[in-house]
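Regression test case RT-17, inverse folding.

Input:
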């Protein structure tokens, strides 16, 4: 009773600047069991915090608003508010909490949304509301490294969006579906999906998803063999994220920018962007972004020869992921990177022990990029530990090349040709070695990566000279 009276008095005292006191009013009315006012003030406080990118505060306010709404006698309007608040909560907390708990909350919202359809005419806003819930179920599956499930939900949403002619509802699932395809390694399939989403996202001013999608479209273009064009797109997305002063968006775009450095083997750029991503992730309180940023930085440090730092950073990445249940997007890529860390440090036995779990993670989600990287490392590590296992080495490298080409990742196909050529040269199969190195040089030249092309061509020339000398 005292809290209710304090809340009522405070409303009158600060009526001219009530926006400054929304959370305080919500707290008093929640404790005073004035549920409708508590829900309204906490919802407004959550919206205000979200606009300032204060995601932890926004999450807490929305959660309290849901508690208040859940204490009111249920009717259709209360149920609609419950669903809408759940969606608002997802937007500010998706990477800061265990995805399993989010899926449980969204399952309740989906049941509620379906009940609204059953009690109404099954069309209009309530149908769009259910589709938005299913979109978020798909999105959480994507963040949980379950792209198949994610894409299944997005396809359901797209069907409804087309029927309702809702451009926003059509564009956002397309955008995340495209990103899920990138994570699987299907760069060629992702490119048109993301391109289709960008126009409507810009038209409806959905700048957060536009920037994410622009960054991912850029990396898909780079993977296809056009790194200059792709890098320009991803940098445009990073610039937009900085302009919006949104640390969560910036972290995501920097993760993609870092991967551009991974594809082109610019390890310094790879490390710098990854470090920026984890720092922005910390500012946003987003464990998912922190973990992927740390994992990427470990990968880059390994390529720079800083092996102890790389292992330490990878341990930090795993610990951060464990805070939200351990299952995060691109987990198979990070696992494959862990195998490369061991290989680069001169520990092929450790690399071999790490490739199998990486491949298992990749296959569980249909991830052809993560498996391809692991297969390449498997072949390289096997060549170091078992020089007589040439046939098995070639099988793994052939599988890696097959998977990269299946996903349209020409840059990694070129790197695989180069690695395979080097191994063939070492074991004296100079004709095959020269052929692979020539393929690598050609792909690098087409991609405008002159330094890598020259290196592959020089290696091929050296192999040719060696063959001539032996003859």
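Golden output:
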């Amino acid at each position: 009773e005292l809290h209710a009276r304090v809340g009522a008095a405070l409303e009158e005292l600060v009526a001219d600047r009530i926006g400054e006191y929304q959370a305080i009013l919500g707290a008093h009315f929640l404790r005073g069991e004035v549920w409708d006012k508590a829900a309204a003030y906490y919802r407004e406080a959550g919206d205000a915090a979200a606009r300032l990118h204060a995601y932890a505060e926004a999450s807490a306010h929305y959660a309290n608003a849901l508690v208040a709404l859940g204490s009111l006698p249920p009717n259709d309007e209360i149920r609609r508010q419950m669903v809408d608040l759940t969606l608002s909560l997802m937007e500010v907390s998706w990477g800061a909490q265990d995805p399993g708990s989010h899926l449980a909350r969204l399952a309740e919202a989906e049941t509620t949304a379906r009940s609204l359809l059953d009690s109404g005419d099954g069309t209009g806003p309530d149908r769009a509301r259910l589709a938005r819930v299913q979109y978020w179920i798909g999105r959480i599956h994507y963040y949980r490294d379950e792209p198949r499930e994610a894409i299944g939900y997005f396809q359901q949403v797209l069907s409804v969006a087309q029927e309702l002619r809702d451009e926003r509802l059509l564009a956002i699932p397309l955008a995340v579906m495209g990103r899920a395809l990138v994570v699987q390694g299907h760069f060629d399939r992702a490119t048109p999906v993301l391109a289709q989403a960008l126009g409507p996202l810009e038209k409806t001013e959905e700048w957060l998803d536009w920037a994410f999608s622009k960054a991912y479209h850029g990396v898909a273009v780079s993977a296809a063999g056009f790194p200059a064009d792709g890098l320009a797109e991803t940098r445009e997305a990073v610039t937009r994220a900085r302009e919006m002063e949104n640390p969560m968006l910036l972290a995501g775009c920097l993760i993609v920018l870092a991967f551009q450095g991974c594809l082109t083997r610019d390890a310094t750029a790879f490390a710098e962007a990854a470090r920026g991503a984890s720092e922005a992730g910390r500012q946003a309180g987003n464990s998912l972004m922190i973990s992927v940023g740390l994992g990427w930085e470990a990968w880059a440090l390994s390529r720079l020869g800083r092996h102890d730092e790389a292992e330490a950073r990878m341990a930090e990445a795993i610990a951060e992921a464990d805070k939200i249940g351990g299952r995060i997007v691109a987990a198979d890529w990070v696992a494959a990177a862990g195998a490369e860390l061991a290989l680069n440090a001169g520990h092929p036995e450790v690399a071999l022990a790490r490739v199998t779990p990486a491949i298992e993670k990749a296959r569980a989600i249909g991830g052809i990029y993560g498996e391809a990287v692991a297969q390449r490392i498997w072949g390289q590590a096997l060549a170091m530990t078992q020089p007589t296992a040439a046939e098995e080495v070639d099988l793994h490298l052939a599988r890696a090349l097959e998977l990269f080409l299946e996903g349209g990742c020409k840059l990694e196909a070129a790197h695989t040709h180069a690695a395979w050529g080097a191994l063939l040269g070492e074991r004296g199969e100079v004709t095959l070695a020269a052929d692979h190195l020539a393929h690598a040089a050609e792909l690098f030249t087409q991609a405008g990566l002159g330094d890598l092309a020259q290196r592959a061509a020089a290696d091929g020339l050296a192999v040719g000279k060696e063959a001539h000398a032996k003859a």
